[in-house]
Amino acid sequence: MSFPPVVILGAGPAGSTLAALLAEQNIPVVVFDDEKRPDLLVGESLVPAVIPILRTLGIEDRVAAISRYKPGTSFIHREELEMHFNFRSVEGLLPTYAYNVPRPQFDDLIRERARELGARFVMCRASLKAKPGDENHELVLDDACLAAAGLNAQPVFIVDAAGRARISARTLGIAAKTGSRRDQAHFAHYENFDHPFPEGQVVITYHEFGWSWRIPLADRMSFGVVICADQAERWGTSGKERLARILAEEPRLASTSKLARRVTEVFTYSNYQLISERGHGPGWVAIGDAFGFVDPMLSPGVFLAMEAAVSVAEVVIRGGLHGAASLGRGLEKQERDMREWITAWKELIDYFYDGRIANFYIAGNEMMRKHPGIISNFMQRNIERRLASMASGGTTRSTWNRHFLTHSIKWLTTPSHSAKYAVPGS
Ligand SMILES: Cc1cc2nc3c(=O)[nH]c(=O)nc-3n(C[C@H](O)[C@H](O)[C@H](O)COP(=O)(O)OP(=O)(O)OC[C@H]3O[C@@H](n4cnc5c(N)ncnc54)[C@H](O)[C@@H]3O)c2cc1C
After folding, report:
1. Using alpha carbons only, what angle is made at residue 302 by residues 292 and 406, rounded to the nearest 5 degrees?
2. Which of 8, 18, 21, 34 maximizes ligand 1 atoms within 8 Å of its Cβ, making it the mutation to test the pocket?
3. Residue nearest ligand 1's atom 38 by CA
4. Which has more confidence, 186 or 385?
5. d(C-alpha 21, C-alpha 270), whole Å
6. Cα separations (Å) of 353 from 77, 87, 297, 394?
7. Closest ligand 1 atom, residue 35 Cα
8. At residue 379, does pLDDT exceed 60?
9. Which of 275, 289, 303, 306 gets mutated to test ligand 1 (max ligand atoms within 8 A of its CB)?
10. 6 DSSP β-pair partners
11. What domains, with CATH codes, occur in the chain?
12. DSSP per residue over 166-195, as a string?
C-alpha cells in the first residue's frame, strides 16, 4: 500500500466502528488486532443509544438476528423494592429498545462490515514508539508492525482502540484517574435459568455483597456478580466457587436458578473506572476503553466506545488529516465531549450506587399515594421519562436533566434514608 493509511489498534466495538466509518468515505484504514479475545466478553447489554449507530453502520438486522431484544432494565433491591424501567418512555427521542448481544459475535459483525467497506485487518499485536518533540507524530508504529502490515511509511494518524491495554497512554506515560471502588466481577453463561420478568429484560439485583446482573441472551443467561473487595473471601476463593455459592444461597437468586447449569468457564474482571489525563496528541487519539471507562452497572461501555468512534470519524471526515492544527482542534473538542459523557454517566451511576435513586423512587410513589391526581401523575411520568432517557444514553449529558435530577432528589429525599439502599462500600 503506497498511500499512508489511518492505523487503528484494536478491533473491538470502538476500533471496528471507526474503521467502517472511515472506509465508507474511501479513507484507507488498517486495523491491527491481537486476537487475544476470550470466548466470552462482558459488554452484552446495550443501551438504546447504540441503535442509531448500528443503523448508520447498516447492521441492525444482522445484530438483531443473533441477539435478544431488550425492552428495559429492572432493579431488584434487597429492601424489597423493585424498580422496573421500560425504554417505551424514550419514544420520540430514541428507539424504544436495545439488544442483549453475544459480544464476540457482535464484534465480528462490526469487523465484517468494516471489511465489506474496504478496511484491512492485520491480525497481530501492535506496539508503538514515542517520538518526543515531533510536532506531527508523537507516536509511531514499531518496525515489526509496519512490516506485518506491509506498510512502507508511517501512518498519517494512529487511533488507539486497544481497550484496557491503553497502548498510547502506556507508551507515553500518561497517567489516569481511577475510581475508589475495588470490586471484582465474575461471570459465566447458564442454561435453564428461570426468568420471571418480561422477555429480554435485564435484571440488576442489589445484595449485601454488591450486585448481580442477569442478561438474557438468545439461548442462554449471562449471570455475573460484582463483589466488594472486603466481602469476596466470604464467598470462596475462586470465581467458580463464588458464583456457585451466591446462586445457591442468595434468596433473590436461588429460586430462579434451581435448574440452572453453567455452560462456560467463569471469567473475572477488576478495575471499574478510569479516565486518562490526556486522550490525544499530534497524530494520535485514544478512543473507547483505551481513553476511559465507567462502572458497568448501567451498561454504557459499548455505547461510549462506538460514540467515540463516530465523533473521531466526524473530525477526520470533516477536517481531513493533513492540517495538524485543525485536526488538533477537532480532537480537542472530541476529547472534551468524551470527558463530559464519562462524567455524566458516572454521576448517574453514582445515584444508583449510593441509594439516592431508590430513595427517590420511593419518595415519588409516596407522593402519588398521598396526593393522587393529575399533577402527581404528570410529575411521576415526567421524572420516569427523564431518568429513562438519561439511562438510555439519549440525554445523559443534558445539563437541564442533570440539574433537574439533582434538585428533585434533594427536594424529595432524605439523605439518611438513601444509605440503606446503597451498594456496600459506596
Ligand atoms: C464487569 C463488566 C461488565 C460490563 N458490562 C457491560 C455491558 O453490559 N454493556 C456495555 O455496553 N459495556 C459493558 N462493559 C464495558 C465494555 O465491555 C467495554 O466498555 C467495551 O468492550 C469497550 O470497547 P472497546 O472497543 O473500547 O475495547 P475492547 O472491547 O476491549 O476492544 C479492544 C480490542 O483491542 C485488542 N487489542 C488489545 N491490545 C492490542 C494490541 N497490542 N494490538 C492489537 N490489538 C490489541 C483486543 O484484543 C480487543 O479486540 C462491562 C465492563 C465490565 C468490566
Report:
1. 70
2. 34
3. 162
4. 186
5. 31
6. 11, 21, 9, 21
7. 47
8. yes
9. 289
10. 29, 157
11. 6-67+102-177+273-346 (3.50.50.60), 185-270 (3.30.9.100), 354-421 (no CATH)
12. -HHHHHHT--EEE-S---EEEEEEEES---
Angle at 86 between CA 81 and CA 90, to 5 degrees: 135
Of 293, 397, 282, which Cα lies nearest the Cα of 331? 282
397-415: pLDDT as tens digits: 999 999 989 998 888 888 7
Are β-strands 292-293 and 210-216 bridged in parallel, bridged antiparallel, or unpaired? unpaired
Output the residue whose Cα is nearest ligand 1's atom 35. Answer: 10
Is the entire prediction scored with pTM above 0.90? Answer: yes
> Hey, whose CA ends up nearest to atom 14 of ligand 1?
43
Beta bridge partners of 286: 160
| Closest ligand 1 atom to Cα of 125 | 42
Please state the rounded mean pLDDT for residues 5-12.
96
What residue's CA is closest to ligand 1, atom 18? 301
The DSSP letter of residue 45 is B
Q: Is the pLDDT of residue 147 over 70?
A: yes
As for ligand 1, residues whose beta carbon falls within 6 Å of it are 9-15, 32-34, 36-37, 42-46, 125-126, 161-163, 165, 167, 185, 269, 288-290, 293, 296, 299, 301-303, 305
Residue 3 confidence (pLDDT): 56
Residue 75 β-bridge partners: 83, 204
Q: Which of 343, 349, 335 is nearest to 169 (CA)?
A: 335
Q: What is the pLDDT averaged over residues 21-29?
A: 96
Contact 71, 198 (CB under 8 A): yes
Give Cα 65 distance to the centre of its chain.
21
Distance 397 CA to ligand 1 centre (A): 22
Among residues 60, 274, 284, 252, the alpha carbon closest in space to that of 167 is found at 284
Q: Which atom of ligand 1 is nearest to the CA of 290?
A: 26
- Do 237 and 189 form a contact (C-beta atoms < 8 A)? no
